[in-house]
Amino acid sequence: MAQAPQPNGGGVRPGSLPAKWITGGENCVEVPDWQVLAYNEDFYILRQSGCVSYEKPFLYLLFGKDKALLEDTGAPPSDAARVVSDVIAKWLKRKSQTSIALIVAHSHGHGDHVAGDAGFRGLANVTMVPLTVDGTREFFGIEKWPDGIGHVDLGERVLDVIPIPGHNALSLAFYDRQTGVLFTGDSLYPGRLYVQDFPAFVRSTERLVEFTKGKIVAHILGTHIEQMAVPYKDYPIGTKYQPEEHELALSRGALLELEEALHGMGDKPVRMALRDFTIWPK
Ligand SMILES: [Zn+2]
Ligand SMILES: [Zn+2]
Hints:
Elements: E1 34-40, E2 43-48, E3 58-63, E4 67-71, H1 80-95, E5 101-105, H2 111-114, H3 117-120, E6 126-128, H4 133-140, E7 150-153, E8 158-163, E9 172-176, E10 181-185, E11 192-195, H5 198-212, E12 219-222, H6 252-265, E13 272-273, E14 278-281
Parallel strand pairs: 4-5, 5-6, 10-12, 11-14
Antiparallel strand pairs: 1-2, 2-3, 3-4, 7-8, 8-9, 9-10, 13-14
The protein binds zinc ion (2 copies).
One zinc ion binds next to α2.
């Protein structure tokens, strides 16, 4: 149900992901605070080092013709504004442009995704999406929360914005029509999916399955890796250095598997390890 007629790339813009990330070791003196990777020349992935925070969150920076959008600002002590400004400056130079507006959005409101916000406030050309349901709804034009879908146009690059409360009341997924990448924050990634509000999480997963029907899903990219490359096994909480971690990207198959597992629980949420992630009701 997310299929292309021919194996020709699905009509989306391609990019590449690394086989391995540096994470946080072995020697922290040699590890950069941020690893920056170009998926392609208009899409950057930033990962905070495990030497700075064991959360090692991922940040995503997407460029359109008129605006750029950043998803998340990192875990404490985050200096994301510095590193993001650097990436933007290099992008501008490459495009022979002098400026571009930046939208700072969030996958959700938890501390390990918003810690660098202060560094962006007051910067010229930066708009912060408010960390409230009403502010988020208004910004992305989501008529009904959480059942509606919002949009943001970066200039020849439209993102769909899908509310997916459950991990957090403010959880959002973004779908980049240009690359076919679905960003799922802490709601689906190779690791422990902490579920705060189980009924809401189930409905959000169902809505994501529904949303992706008939769409190309090149990758599902979440905001952490806690899973090992070994199936059904994770790194314990607090691990800084993960030399054998799972790859970042999941496929739509993982989303279907998540939905199936949740439906199997009925109204009794339990911890359940799957091959690539663990459902972890709080
Ligand atoms: Zn979270
Ligand atoms: Zn998180």
